[in-house]
Amino acid sequence: MTEPVFRRLCLVGAGLIGGSIARRARERGDLAGEVVVTARSAATLSRVRELGFADRVVEDAAEAVRGADGVILCVPVGAYAAVMRRIAPALEPGAVLSDVGSTKGSVVRDLAPLLPPGVHLVPAHPMAGTEHSGPDSGFATLFEGRYCILTPQPEGDAAAAEKVAEFWRRCGSLVETMDVATHDKVVAIVSHLPHLIAFVICGTADDLAEETRESVLKFAASGFRDFTRIAASDVAMWRDVFLNNREAVLEMLARFTEDAQAFGRAIRWGQEEFIVDRIERGRKIRRGLIERKQA
Amino acid sequence: MTEPVFRRLCLVGAGLIGGSIARRARERGDLAGEVVVTARSAATLSRVRELGFADRVVEDAAEAVRGADGVILCVPVGAYAAVMRRIAPALEPGAVLSDVGSTKGSVVRDLAPLLPPGVHLVPAHPMAGTEHSGPDSGFATLFEGRYCILTPQPEGDAAAAEKVAEFWRRCGSLVETMDVATHDKVVAIVSHLPHLIAFVICGTADDLAEETRESVLKFAASGFRDFTRIAASDVAMWRDVFLNNREAVLEMLARFTEDAQAFGRAIRWGQEEFIVDRIERGRKIRRGLIERKQA
């Protein structure tokens, strides 16, 4: 039997992602010898106990990470600094500290300064999720066939990075490595901006005069329906994503807004060629995605 | 056996929508006694003959509509004026002229002035579609359970409107009636603006520096993938939609842009409450859609 990646793994947070990791570890023997779960709310702790996907449930975060050779933060990225202040003194020398956040610049900013000597930080971002959240929403196959991006620090420990990579491969993920700045730009356009747009357009529709709004709900065609599916995502997670990938999100929003205004101007002035060119680019990108079997 | 709605139905255009209507009529006996199809391109005409879903395929549009008591325009809305100039002299007194376009103000603008006396105009918009186009893409169940919006003219013939309503009910659609201006506003926000955004964001991604762009294609998460699915739609159809629902699309784009800028400003200044409020409104609209079983 293959040796587990971590002797004792502590998951800080047990929502969709943390709960899915725990279930995966429970299903296979090669991720962690023991899974310890800690969470902030009493409701979550009690639900995790009921669901039974952790070997131990520990209320105090510092107590939970003690003795763990692997710690993965699975809370909204806005909570990292506070969590780190609590757990840093209890982290074991030699332990690997990782996370699952959708922003990586903020993670390095919030975790690196408090990192005890001998503890290795390997930020990770599994690109998987659903519109559901909470401890009940996780499942063992969530990460299968999905990318997981690691942003190890250039001066970091190579063995620790390889441990985290192997962990995610065993979760079924396709592991890629990227620098922090590139990661934050890429996710800003492929994920954060689309979510921002989805949240905004729902609000725009909600602000319409009563009669039109009722019809909007009634006739929401596929276009709008896809947007609202995105918009159903977890509130705290997305609040923190926007606040913690601020520069990249604002850059992509600015670029998108310029392009949307140019498209609007083309509509106003009847510039057929411009409009056709933009529609055809959309189709081209779509074909690119299909060729990459991501569609 | 139920009497067919139309003795002889002429479909002008045989793409996704026209081809689906013809297949539905072929499958059931109660839509049309005879289905005549005409189309502009020789390739489409020849393909329709091969597929065999029409009783007759006629090259000349005026010849095709002659003797028909029902005519449905199934071409991009930008082609309506030219088609109408060709067919108007051949339309039979008493015939019902309808269409399937996504804009309705432009349809009345382009068709009503050329309408011969005794021909009844009943604009219709079946809210159904896929990302595919052309005569091969249609199927008989496309309209089942989907809304079809009629925008009959206030001074129009009630019996003609009822004929078109019954036609769509027999196609499986939920028929609703609306005035032209409300229709154009509602579809601008539920369909046209989401498509505009999808086309634009693909272009924004395509304009990124080469390295980031490659990663964008590789890591396109679900958010961006949903957008590109929308963006795969037919070019000529969407060009004509934007150009022919200009005022409503520009109004909705302006409202959306203001709201997106406000969201961006909240990110820049770290206004958590504003961001949370907007995310929660998205979830609320989503719940509204689920309650209406449109999700």
Beta-strand fraction estimate of chain A:
5-15%
Enumerate how many helices of chain A there are, as a single number: 12
The outline of chain A comes out as globular
The radius of gyration over CA of chain A amounts to 21 Å
Strand runs of chain A, count = 9
N-to-C SSE series of chain A? EHEHEHEHEHEEEHEHHHHHH
Oligomerization state = homodimer
Helix content of chain A: 40-55%
CATH homologous superfamily name of the largest domain in chain A?
NAD(P)-binding Rossmann-like Domain
The stretches of 5 or more residues of chain A where confidence is low (pLDDT under 50) are none
In short:
The structure is a homodimer of 295-residue chains. A 6-stranded parallel sheet of chain A has the order 3-2-1-4-5-6, with helices on both faces. In chain A, strands 7-8-9 form a 3-stranded mixed sheet, covered by helices on one side.
Please give a structural write-up.
Two copies of one chain form a homodimer. Chain A has 295 residues and is of the alpha/beta class. Chain A has two domains: 6-178, 3-Layer(aba) Sandwich (Rossmann fold), CATH 3.40.50; 182-291, 6-phosphogluconate dehydrogenase C-terminal fold (Orthogonal Bundle). Chain A is built from twelve helices and nine strands. Chain A has helices spanning 16-27, 42-51, 61-65, 80-87, 105-111, 158-170, 180-206, 210-219, 222-231, 235-244, 246-268, 272-291; strands at residues 6-12, 32-38, 56-57, 70-73, 96-99, 120-122, 124-126, 147-150, 174-177. A six-stranded parallel β-sheet of chain A has the order 3-2-1-4-5-6, with helices on both faces. A three-stranded mixed β-sheet of chain A has the order 7-8-9, with helices on one face. In chain A, strand 4, helix 4 and strand 5 (96-99) form a beta-alpha-beta unit. In chain A, helix 7 packs across helix 9 (222-231) and helix 7 (180-206) packs across helix 11. Chains A and B meet through helix 7, helix 8, helix 9, helix 10 and helix 11 of A and helix 7, helix 8, helix 9, helix 10 and helix 11 of B.
